[in-house]
Design goal:
The protein is α+β, with helices and mostly antiparallel strands and 121 residues long. It has 1 helix and 5 strands. The protein folds into 2 domains: 9-74, Nucleic acid-binding proteins (OB fold (Dihydrolipoamide Acetyltransferase, E2P)); 92-121.
Length: 121
């Protein structure tokens, strides 16, 4: 049985972008191409307006060549953006300073709680 079937929605990683399409890496060394005509139902001036290299996206399988492990893909009729699993971590001006300041307070509070529980026993 083939790994990919026409109509499947699959996850892939954008590995390259050219004037005519985006190259997508799929599981088990399959490679895909989203032709510029399969990016949107509207005029696409630049694929970079839709995708970026390294981005994980969802794609619809249009055609599969099992011999070459090449897959023709589309994103124009699906919600292709993946929600980041962990979100982006943003650095702050203070970095770890707030934790450094609070840690001794939290440790004293926890030790006090532990000692109180021991007395009650």
């Amino acid at each position: 049985m083939a790994l990919y079937q026409v109509g499947d929605i699959v996850e892939g990683t954008v590995t390259g972008i050219s004037e005519y399409g985006a190259f997508i890496h799929l599981l088990q060394n399959y490679n895909g191409l989203i032709h510029i005509s399969e990016i949107s139902n509207h005029y696409v001036k630049s694929i970079l307006d839709y995708l970026s290299i390294g981005e994980d996206i969802l794609c619809e399988v249009l055609e599969v060549d099992e011999t070459t492990k090449q897959v023709k893909l589309s994103i124009k009729n699906i919600n292709y953006k993946l929600i980041p699993r962990y979100g982006k971590i943003k650095d702050t001006k203070n970095g770890f300073k707030p934790l450094q300041m609070k840690l001794p307070i939290w440790m004293r509070e926890k030790l006090k709680e532990i000692n109180e529980n021991k007395r009650e026993e």
